[in-house]
Amino acid sequence: MHTNADQIEAEAQTEPAAMTFSDLGLSQPVLKALKDIGYETPSAIQAATIPTLLGGRDVVGMAQTGTGKTAAFALPIIDRLDLSQKTPQALVLAPTRELALQVCEAFEKYAGHLKDVHVLPVYGGQGYGVQLSALRRGVHIVVGTPGRIIDHLEKGTLDLSGLQYLVLDEADEMLKMGFAEDVETILAETPDTKQVALFSATMPATIRRMSQQYLHDPEEITVKSKTQTSANISQRYLITAWQQKMDALTRILEVENFDGMIVFGRTRSITEEIAEKLRARGYSAAAINGDIAQPQREKTVNQLKSGKLDILVATDVAARGLDVERVSHVVNYDIPTDAESYVHRIGRTGRAGRSGDAISFVTPRERGLVKMIERATRQELTEIPLPSVDEVNVTRLSRFDDRITAALGEAERIEAFRDIVAHYVRNHDVPEADVAAALAVVAQGDTPLLLEADPEPAPRRERTERTDRGDRPAFGDRPERGERRTPREGFATYRINVGKRQRVEPRQIVGALANEGGLRRDDFGAIKIMPDFSLVELPANLPAGALDRLADTRISGQLIELRPDSGRPQRRKDATGGSYRDNRGYGDRSESRGSYRDSGSRGSYGDDRPARKPRHKRSDG
Fold first, then answer.
1. 169 and 199 in contact (C-beta within 8 Å)?
2. Which range, of 235-239, 278-282, 586-590, averages the lowest pLDDT?
């Protein structure tokens, strides 16, 4: 591996200001796609990596998440595809299904002006049928997690003999999650002539050894992250269900003292929907996105600058280069999936030394994106609760007081209305305070001044003697040997077919079930690990969909076969004289996969969760 003279230090601060993507040697179809997306100048890692990969040389990239590394490897691959070849030409390995899907979507956007480029995400939790049929039809690019790629290689359903490009994305994360052996197995199954790009935020000894063994004369490219956010921007987030986002936004608008605001949505259609609903609630709002013509965009932005418009709802592309001094707040209605977009968005406020506020809406399943942004920006986001009805009402009353105070300053108009009120009091024998209240009703109209209080939460049931024996146990806490613990209220005990013999740990169980079943940390109770199986407390009303998604889940290479626990402890040996199997009336299922690697070598988090069917050539929203 080259160092010193051959090593490139790609500093964000020193990247050439005039450089464009056309300077990097990319073809016209790729450049047209980048123009459609709104990309103008390459990031530091893109400027350093794209020409190197186009030149055919292997690359080791030291780059944090959010520096633009996906485009750094995806654009050269798209540029050099042979569309007549039906077996996979490029394989990208990613540690999690979420990252695999993001990379797939990026490939599809960059291939927007190429005909019939087929990109396939491959990860566990999704049925094999979708993946097998796509592979039979022909796929140019495969993006997958190591575990499912290994499965396809073992089954003979993935042909890597024609592979020309291999990318290891976030290699250090793959090692942390126990995929080192899987990655090396996959590397050994690929042609020696392939070009390899390895990206990692850190360079531990294992990755250094791997790069020396499997890469040929690589160029090492180090990128210092430019995903730093301004210190004068307050960064907050609140957890809300997707269906409650509009109500959350309305309450934020009620309690925040903002001047101008930009609300970011992920797609064109959602920006129009948000703007329409805000206008219906009495706010001055308009949307800009890729469908808005340039003259209309300029007119809308000028209205925001002049104060005729208070809220601009925009996509990332539409807001590029937007600089409006009066923007005091940015709201991420949809939190971005990469740190660079996050930094770009919140940078629309807090400009030229002014203070600003950024608030992000995060659904329960998107909590990991907050951690990713915090790691990349090295700044902590503060979680805030949804503003309460009392907070909203206090704000409304304060504003109502301000309107009264302002009206009292108009002496001539006050004098005229004083005579009118006095006339009404004399003729109708009504106290002046009642007349003032009636006038307030007239001024307010049909919209209530104050919100009704949120309904009181249902009273908690008294704890029974059985459950009142102490606090809820922490993860992995379990009763003494031989004691069967009664699940806490609302929970049931489930059985999985891995235990001490597989060297399973509570964190592996939590990671696998959470990732594949869409469960949260709060959905787990006590975990008891037995020699041949484990007992896990989960919600009693676990939806059937979650059970279906977990049907093919593996931990340490073994199917877990999640099912409710019967509570009957009888066991028998299987017919082959092997390890004990539980005899609780569920029947046995044969293990379809051999033990090609040690137990515990494959981390279960992130490899495999169910998801939507792959969509190709998706346009940017």
1. yes
2. 586-590
Please name each of the domains of the chain with its CATH number. Answer: 4-223 (3.40.50.300), 233-378 (3.40.50.300), 391-444 (no CATH), 473-615 (3.30.70.330)
Confidence label for 343 from pLDDT (cuts 50, 70 and 90): confident
Separation of alpha carbons 603 and 508, rounded Å: 7
User: CA-based angle 42:116:199, to the nearest 5?
Assistant: 40
Do 9 and 63 contact (CB within 8 A), yes or no? no
Cα–Cα nearest to 267, from 109, 110, 117: 109
pLDDT per position as a tens digit, 575-585: 334 444 443 33
- DSSP 8-state symbol, 14: G
Q: What is the DSSP letter of 443?
A: H
Whether 609 and 515 have beta carbons less than 8 Å apart is answered as yes
Query: Rounded CA gap, 291 and 393, in Å?
Result: 38
Decide if pLDDT at 591 tops 50.
Answer: no
How is residue 585 annotated by DSSP?
S
Orientation of helix 146-155 relative to helix 128-137, angle to 10°: 70
CA 562-563-566 angle, 5° bins: 140
Q: Provide DSSP, 397-435.
A: HHHHHHHHHHHHT-HHHHHHHHHHHHHHHHHH---HHHH
Answer for the pair 79, 30: CB distance below 8 angstroms, yes or no: yes
% of the chain surpassing 70 pLDDT: 79
How far apart are the C-alpha atoms of 325 and 61, rounded to whole Å? 37
Q: How far is CA 613 from the centre of its chain?
A: 18
Model pLDDT for residues 317-330, shown as the tens digit of each residue: 677 667 788 899 99
- Residue 569, Cβ density class (10 Å: 0-12 exposed, 13-18 middle, ≥19 buried): exposed
Q: Are strands 119-122 and 141-144 parallel, antiparallel or unpaired?
A: parallel
Kindly list the distances between the CA atom of residue 209 and the CA atoms of 92, 184, 218, 517, in Å, as whole numbers in the listed order. 20, 11, 13, 35
Cα 391 to Cα 194, 331, 398, 486, distances in angstroms: 61, 19, 11, 41
